[in-house]
Amino acid sequence: MSETKQTPMQLALAQAQAAAQRGEVPVGAVIIEAKTGHLIATACNRTEERNDPTAHAEIMAIREATSRQGAPRLQDCDLYVTLEPCAMCAAAISFARIRRLYFGAYDAKSGGVDHGAKVFDHDTCHHKPEVIGGVNETEAAELLKEFFKERR
Question: How far apart are CA 4 and CA 20, in angstroms?
């Protein structure tokens, strides 16, 4: 039997599930080298574990990828994340020069891409990645709903 290769968003969803199991808000992210499809970084939320409000999945993935690449910019890379990035993460994505952003669930309350601050729409935004939202949206949204349902 041959092994089925997971898509980048499936890898991000697995990271989100791991976060939920540790009591973190279930958001996962992966960074892929666009030309080769090579996996560069995987991460999930670690704000509770690290007592760090900036330890969002996207930030953690960008930190890992830039460290591995030995450069502060990731212009040949794509980021897959299970939830629409907040304004902080959207700004970091812009600063890192991520080529393309794929995200799962939309976040009407705290999103910073299609909702709220809409960081990439501002004239002061130096780099706007191509954005594709709603990738595996149902699965990503369900993870979040279940997580918060158990806490209420």
Answer: 24
Which residue bears the tokens 């960074």?
A: 31
Which residues lie closer than 8 Å to 38 by C-beta, 6 or more apart?
Answer: 32
- For residues 52 and 68, what is the distance between their CA atoms, to the nearest angstrom? 22
- When pLDDT is averaged across residues 15-21 and rounded to a whole number, the result is 98
Of 99, 90, 82, nearest to 120 (Cα)?
90
Task: Tell me if the pTM is above 0.85.
Answer: yes
For the record, the structure tokens of 45 come out as: 């939320």
Three-state SS for 148?
A: helix
92 with 62: CB under 8 angstroms? yes
User: Is 84 designated active site?
Assistant: no
CA angle 118, 121, 127 (to 5 degrees): 110
Q: Which of 24, 48, 49, 58 is catalytic?
A: 58
CA distance 11 to 28: 8
pLDDT higher than threshold 50 for residue 50? yes
Mean pLDDT of the chain: 96
How many CB atoms neighbour CB 145 within 10 A?
Answer: 12
Please give the structure tokens belonging to residue 61. 């993935």
